[in-house]
Write a structure and sequence with these properties.
With 311 residues, the protein is α/β, with parallel strands linked by helices. It is built from ten helices and twelve strands.
């Protein structure tokens, strides 16, 4: 069996990206007839027409749509392997990285991360965007460089993952709230009026399951899409917010926080990125900066708990 011509992958990638023989030819500086002959060769090799006529244009076949992303990644990986390795010069690095995070991450870890990046690589700019859902598409498409969150069954299996820290849910109320004084029992907690945080609009979760084992049910007064909104409402009312402890440290300033009176599982917040970025020196450096920012926060949290009178 003859070995496949891997040069065809580059041409296939351009054809599937452009969806036009003429545009692909111009991009690769080939004649339209040469590109047509190559497309015919690809069709014969792969046993699929790949691009078919639809009106005046061409549309991809189901097979072409299925392999388009894989072909793109293969070509990108090949270019990375064949490119001469360069030593990363952070002082000369000019680049914008996009990070997608849930509410609270930037407020807690952003100041240290931005200062660290500015000190080491002044030409680097960080762009933080909100994480409205758990869709892995932005990482796959390359519109997001890094993402933080909890890995779940819906997380794309090909993503690279590194644990950052463990977190747990706590209760938060304004300083004048009745729960700011006295022992907080499961009954006192459940009898309050609650804010539920859910990007998907759900109104029940692990806390409610834990309360159910005590025969208790809390009253969900309102459902919001983020931790900052929940804490803002709790700050200005007698509502109770239940939010991740470490993820919301700075957002909770001036409020009363307390451990939940029921047992709920801790969870791991992780750093996620697409494999095509894994070997990139600048991307690897930024991942280290994010990890350092979270480690620094651990030290600050320990100090606050050990020496509360200094805060």
């Amino acid at each position: 069996m003859s070995r496949p011509d891997f040069n065809l992958l580059v041409i296939l990638d351009v054809l599937l990206t452009e969806g036009s023989v003429a545009r692909a030819a111009r991009r690769l500086r080939l004649s339209p007839s040469a590109m047509s002959r190559t497309l015919a060769r690809l069709r014969e090799t792969m046993g699929d027409p790949l691009l078919v006529r639809a009106g005046r244009g061409l549309v991809p076949t189901p097979r072409a749509m299925e392999i388009r992303e894989r072909v793109s990644h293969l070509v990108q990986d090949g270019e990375t392997i064949l490119r001469p390795a360069e030593k990363l010069n952070l002082k000369q690095l000019v680049r914008t990285f996009t990070l997608r995070n849930s509410e609270g991450f930037v407020e807690n870890f952003g100041p240290y991360l931005i200062a660290r990046v500015a000190e080491q690589a002044p030409g680097v700019r960080l762009r933080f965007i909100q994480k409205p859902d758990k869709d892995s598409g932005p990482l796959r498409e390359g519109t997001v460089d890094l993402e933080t969150g909890v890995v779940e069954k819906t997380t794309a299996p090909e993503l690279c993952v590194q644990a950052l820290f463990r977190d747990r849910y706590i209760g938060v109320v304004r300083k004048e709230h009745p729960l700011a004084r006295g022992k907080i029992t499961a009954s006192r907690y459940a009898n309050g009026r609650h804010i539920y945080v859910s990007r998907e609009g759900f109104d029940r979760g692990p806390i409610d399951e834990a309360l159910k084992s005590f025969g208790l049910e809390r009253e969900i007064v309102t459902i919001v899409g983020g931790f900052a909104t929940a804490l803002a409402l709790a700050r200005g009312s007698d509502l109770i917010a239940s939010v991740p402890e470490r993820h919301t440290g700075n957002l909770r300033a001036g409020m009363h926080s307390f451990p939940l009176p029921v047992s709920t599982p801790e969870f791991t917040v992780s750093l996620l990125w697409h494999p095509r970025q894994d070997a990139d020196p600048a991307h690897r450096w930024l991942r280290g900066c994010v990890r350092d920012a979270c480690v620094q926060d651990v030290a600050d949290t320990v100090n606050r708990r050990a020496f509360p009178e200094t805060q």
